[in-house]
Amino acid sequence: MTTVPRPRTTEGSAALDRLLAEPSRAVLAFDFDGTLAPIVPDPRDARAYPGATAELARLSSLVASVVIITGRPAGLAVEYGGLDNIEGVVVLGQYGRERWEAGHLDAPEPPAGVQLVREELPDLLRRYDAPEGTWIEDKGHALAVHTRRTPDPDAALSLLRAPLTALAERADLTVEPGRMVIELRPPGMDKGTALTRFATERGATSLLYAGDDLGDLAAFDAVEQLREKGVPGLTVCSGSDEVTALADRADLIVDGPPGIADLLGSLRTALESAAPRD
After folding, report:
1. Which value, to the nearest 10 degrees, does the dihedral of the CA atoms of residues 253, 192, 31, 53 take?
2. If 183 and its partner were Cys, which of 38, 40, 80, 144 is the partner (CB 3.0–4.6 Å)?
3. Helix (H) or strand (E) run with residue 234 in it
4. How many Cβ atoms sit within 10 Å of the Cβ of residue 79?
5. For residues 92-122, b (16+ Cβ closer than 10 Å) or e, as one string?
């Protein structure tokens, strides 16, 4: 029989126990890239880890809500995750600025600063001699500079961090660091704010959030703040060798997207086993 892995902290264990005891009011929240989907050299090639989408679909009928909170445009996360035909899964894209639910996408217009960055970013990379392999991902509401395909990704990030920060300040945008990437995006919304609003909206009495990168720290903060308000929360790190900040704070660490898929399966099995039968 598959068992749900136990968190290493008292707070995480309490949250897991509440989730399993009262799933009808539990919210399960997940990052996409690096959590539900493996990190790949080109983000356009990212797809959900085999079996993860099917487990999300089954879990969505067993808990109050399943939500994916991602820096990607919501529509892309739906496409790459194969989520378009799954009932009960909500996708909050662009750190919560966009919302996809039941086939409908709600997306505001991006602020003017995004266009400024779009126009100036190629010249900035040329002026600072960004190494070969550096490339720009246009997310519509944000732009990201990736260095994963350069000979020395960390050195490329160090070279570009200061000029990108200066450009973001001129454009009234914020800088979001990540795994071999620096993103310039609108301020005022992050994964923590998005998670708090969603959990409150759904009346969650327990909460799980799983992520892998620095942008997920805000969601971990939100889980801790909700705990202080009486909502037990469990933080899960999709572990990697590239980022350790989340692992240091997580209640539970699993082995990347395969570990997340296994966790989904064990949760689903436990909830189905506990469900009353006619």
Report:
1. 110
2. 144
3. strand 233-238
4. 13
5. bbbbbbbbbeeeeeebeebbebbebbbeebe
Provide the token pair at 210.
Answer: 């799983």
**Tokens matching residue 273:** 């086993």
- Please name the residues in contact with 63: beta carbons below 8 A apart, sequence gap of 6 or more: 19, 23, 24, 26, 27, 28, 271
Task: Classify residue 224 by burial, with Cβ atoms within 10 Å: 0-12, 13-18, 19+.
Answer: middle
Q: What is the pLDDT of residue 42?
A: 87
By the 10 Å C-beta count (0-12 exposed, 13-18 middle, 19+ buried), 193 is classed as middle
> Over the stretch 178-193, which tens digit does the pLDDT of each residue have?
989 999 999 988 999 9
Give the single-character DSSP code of 33.
B
Axis-axis angle for helices 256-274, 10-21 (nearest 10): 50
**Measured between alpha carbons, how far is residue 172 from residues 6, 112, 132, 164, 176 in Å?**
43, 9, 28, 12, 13
CA distance to 63, 81, 167, 241, per residue, from 207 (Å): 10, 22, 37, 26
Instruction: Tell me the per-residue pLDDT of 4-62, one tens digit each, with 9 for 90 and over.
Output: 999 999 999 999 999 999 999 999 999 999 999 999 988 889 999 999 999 999 999 99
Residues 63-116: pLDDT tens digits? 999 999 999 999 999 999 999 988 889 999 999 999 999 999 999 988 899 999
228 near 56, Cβ under 8 Å?
no
Q: Using the structure block, give the residue that is written with the tokens 């992520």.
A: 211
- Total-model pTM: 0.88
